[in-house]
Amino acid sequence: MADEDAGSEEKVAQTSSASADASPDGRSAPAVAEPSAADDPGSPTWALPRGTVVLLTIAGIVVAVLGIKSIGSIVGPVFLGLIMTVAVAPVPGWLRRKGWPKWTAFLATVLLVYGIILGLFGSVIYCIARLATILPQYSDKFNDLIDDVQQALSDHGIGQDKVNDMLSHVDAGKVFDVVGDVVSSTANAASALILVLTVLLFMAVDSINSDERFAVLKRVRPDVAHAFDTFASGTRNYLVVSTVFGLIVAVFDTGALWLMGIPLPLLWGLLSFITNYIPNIGFVLGVIPPAILALLDGGWMLALWVIVIYSVINFVIQSVIQPKFVGDSVGLTTTVTFLSLIFWAWVIGPLGALLAIPLTLLCKSLLLDIDPSTRWTDVLISSGRPTTDEVEEARRHNEQQARIREEAQQAHRAGDGGEDTVSS
């Protein structure tokens, strides 16, 4: 009796199951495929091996760099215009808060930027032109210097024939011809100046409504907005610090040259101020012209004193005093700064040396800081220690990524287990 009841219940259960699987019109319902681990959006899938992805990324970077290098004469002036626009971006807002009309604040900003650019280019051209006009006056002293070197080498046992062979190709006229070629190349600088001024005008027009655009960007892509803000603030800090301490260095250099009787001390002080914007080797470029004049005008000892005084002033002000007041305004290690100087000078020419730090800050902000998964690189390229907030943010990001990977692995294992059960 009990067996009959059990058999009846089993038949009823089978009938109910069949009814549930049947469609309203009596036909069997189609089978529904269960999602597999491959369909899980959380599971990490790679279309290519990671090594291949890395190689393709490196190849893409090389192609991009070579492309930029091929149009470096355009990229350099355009980026200079961008840097100047970023530098004076707070000026229109400050003028409008003072009660200036919008168009007046815009016009004043454009004139300010034009004045800075024209002053920068004009100062460089003036320094080169003055050096070219002064050096021919020392032609006789240059020949006397060559004779002194020849005599000193002969006194130290170097044969006269070898000395004559080494110095036969040294000609003061050729040296001054090179300076003349440098002066003639200012035509290229003039064309670049026109491009910079044109780009600045268009960028200034577009920046009128930049506040509204940036507010929208903050709402839509806060990470991108933060990257741009980091680049802008870092660039402005770098320019302010370089300007203030460049003026201090220029004043001391001018005074030292005046006391030593070097010709045109104001001119070389101006040159030291301009070259201060070039990191690491800027003071070396600034000391070469006055050292040459000191060598021709007063001999080896005076030239040595010029080099020593320039080096001491640069070291004390930029390596001892400046960090105590402002710290590291750039946020890059010395090695990264020097390598960026070489790299950007190779990519876009001499203007790249002047813009090396802002260009590196832009790449760092848009390629590294914008992505939480790549912010760990700041530990390697930043000069300062990471703050507590940065360490905490990195820890939270790593924990979140670990949870995502663990959940993906669990889902993948669960999917494999379900497939094994079905197949068995």
Automatic annotation (TrEMBL):
A GO CC term assigned to this protein in UniProt: membrane
Alphabetized Pfam families for the sequence: AI-2E_transport
Compositionally skewed regions (Basic and acidic residues) per UniProt: 393-416
Membrane topology: Multi-pass membrane protein
Chain intervals for the UniProt region annotation (Disordered): 1-44, 387-424
Subcellular location: Membrane
Swiss-Prot/TrEMBL keywords: Membrane, Transmembrane, Transmembrane helix
Superkingdom of this protein's organism: Bacteria
Biological process, per Gene Ontology: transmembrane transport
Residue spans crossing the bilayer: 51-68, 74-95, 107-132, 189-209, 238-260, 266-288, 300-321, 341-363
Protein family: Belongs to the autoinducer-2 exporter (AI-2E) (TC 2.A.86) family.
Protein name: AI-2E family transporter
